[in-house]
Fold:
Amino acid sequence: MRTLRLRLITVVMLFLIVGGTPCLVVAADPEISPEQLAFFESKIRPVLVQECYRCHSHKTGNAKGGLRLDTELSTRQGGSSGPAIVVGDAQSSLLYNAIAYQELAMPPDRQLSQNVIDDFRKWIEMGAPDPRKSVVSEFNSKITAAEIAAAKSSFWAYQKPQKSAAPLDPIDPVDREPGHQSWTRGTIDQFILDAMMRAKLKPALDAEPHQILRRLHYDLIGLPPDVTQYRAFASAYQRDPENAISGVVDSLLDSPQFGERWGRHWLDVARYAESNGREVNMTFPHAWRYRDFVIDSFNDDKPYDRFLQQQIAGDLLPTDDDRQWSENLIATTFLAMGPKSLSERNRLQFDADVADEQLDTTTRVVLGTSVACARCHDHKFDPIPQSDYYALAGIFANTETFCGAPASQFGVVSGLQNRHNSNLIRLPTPDPNPFDRSYSSDEMDAMLDQVRQLREQLVESRRATQQNSGGNQTSQDAIRNLVRTQTQMETLSGSLGSVDALGQPISFCMGVQDRYRVKDIQILIRGEIDTPGPIAPRDFPQVLRDEPAVIKPNSSGRLELAKWLTSRDNPLTARVMVNRIWQHLLGTGIVRTTDDFGFMGQPPTHPELLDYLAVQFMDSGWSIKSMVREITTSRVYRLSSAAEPDRIAADPDNHWLSRGNLRRQSAEAIRDSMLALSGELVFERPRASEVAKAGYMQVRDGNLLNIGQITMSAGDAMSRRESARPLMRPQFGMGFGLGMGGMDARPGLRSAPVTSNRVDMVEANFRSVYLPILRDELPRSMEVFDFAEPSMVIGSRETSNTPNQALYMLNNELVLRLSDAFARRVRDRTGSIDHSIDEAFLLAYGRPPTANEQSAVKAFATQFAGEFSLREPTMQTLSAICQSLFASAEFRYIH
Structure:
């Protein structure tokens, strides 16, 4: 009989997938006794098939609440409310509670017999033996060890950078000119000139002094120079160009605006945003802490290796004080703030997707390699087998993410069955959100009394729900009362959990922590959670490391990953970062595919120079400012971008950098420049963020939906030494009720239109890096000028030239306001309209108007006065002229 039963439940399926040939076997667990197997087959499986599968199985295509009950794995992983089975504990098992109508009511149309309920209790208490298992008996990758070894020995990106000697005497093979040797100003120029002359090219002339100064200011701080700075630099440049440039570079590197400019570059690749995006676009009111951390890190010239380690494993790094500990926790927001499918009902799927997004971001940002392409099969182009993906994904799968979006940890958005709560991490140092509310002792006492009352009401509401089942009106009323009571309880819990015992706001941040229980994960055949394969021990990609990773059994492996990423033996980390720095200063990277250093990426135009810079970067202590200084003081940096037909014909893509690259300003630089020229720019950093002020909201179709206060569980702070856990675990509740027509808003839900003033912050005068960045709802001033898509890793922004940009400069309220302010400023500086025009040109372009421009402006002023019946040019005329300067190509481009 035992053999017969085993044969009946054993199915062997062979199928072929890309990158491997696994054999999937569905078989009985040999540890299940014949008696347990018989009990399951006779008492449990028939009930599941008849009563549950129609709403909770893969075959029927239904997974209500994210729950599927047709395999052991899906049953134990559970759905939106958590595991359906707690082995050995029927009372804590949601499946048992549901069929016993203790908390839930399943099946909803009628309650099962007491005999069936007792059978399920007995089955769970005996260990819930379940033969419905899927295992892969064999998994073979098409990428062999020999192929990986060959790639490591032959492909440039997988070999450690070597610092080769620079060419000492670059020679033009066609026409050597003795003066060329004096053209170089350092090692960078020697590499560039050597390659240039081998391509039979000669360097362009240097740019004009005002163009060089403007280029330096925008590249280093993202703001234009003032007239006095233009004049001082022109004088210094005439005496000694090298000292003039070095002096400006040092001054700008010491400016606090440097971090605001270069921090924004990092936020592009870190996919910084203050909302979740995707189907459920919830705000992240604590994301601003990471923004400020990045800006301060660049201003402090924090070593890049330390900067990375904090973001990957800051919670695991040793610290000397609570201030450093807080900074480390905030840094891990890097992993926490990616977009997530909050509507995903399957917890295991949600966790796999979060780990995938973190892995993809980390490898593309730090290594310039898309390891995530191997999630479903071996990498199509690079020597990364699928097993390598899961070895690395295991590190992130053993990491808990605390982002603060409601129910984000398990992807549950709302509902009566929501047992899974999202979290924030409590900071050990007091630095509360300035918009958080404090409570008096009387208010605290009143809320505690109300919580006690609601707790009693909740017990009564649950009892009424259990007694009135069946889908009639009484049952619906009971469910509504239960939801209403839960919502009130959650709101009060949030108020209490967000303050300390004295009613003062507690400081929180987004971030990550290691899980309590750490384990390696299984390879998922075709990337599907329903077909788990063999275990993949946590490790790093084979093609990038010499020896297998040594990861402590009780560690996720993030600390080991952070140290490996920042090791001098890592072939890519330093190369990728210096290439990003080069791109931001020269316009294109030495590797032009900045996020792809793999086989399908473009090879470096100057490989020896790239390696020289990478080694120099590490030798400098991973100093970003030192690398910026070396590049900006080179001769190639100051070359003119003038369009010379012969030079463009010989090298249309400027592959060999024989001329400067004409670059359009970023969206932030355009807005900040208008503020600066108008005299309206406020340099002081705004505290927190407009999103922090708004609180937890849902962004939907241009509206912000207030979902009420964050609901947190009150608790005592843990010791800072307990570094493996959050200091506090706030809980969230959306608080939606069930209406007759489906989901309706609870009392107090309000919808406020996101007007152009709210999103674009027309009246805000702080720098653009501090504007609210909501996924799918970007400020207009950012969106129209190709701002980085905040849901993606953006190493190189798109640069477009569209009618919308011209219309924005013509009609936008911010542009009109700043044009008026610009006109008032230049008039106040000069005292007359005529002199104001010269001053406006000097401020906007760094040069006075040409004769042709003077004539054109006078003709425009006369025509404008005639159109508006003005006797002579007025402030209105000057404002229109200033607006035309804002809209001009010379204002928007760096020459």
About this structure: Confidence is low (pLDDT under 50) at residues 1-28, 172-176, 406-421, 707-759. The longest strand covers residues 23-27.
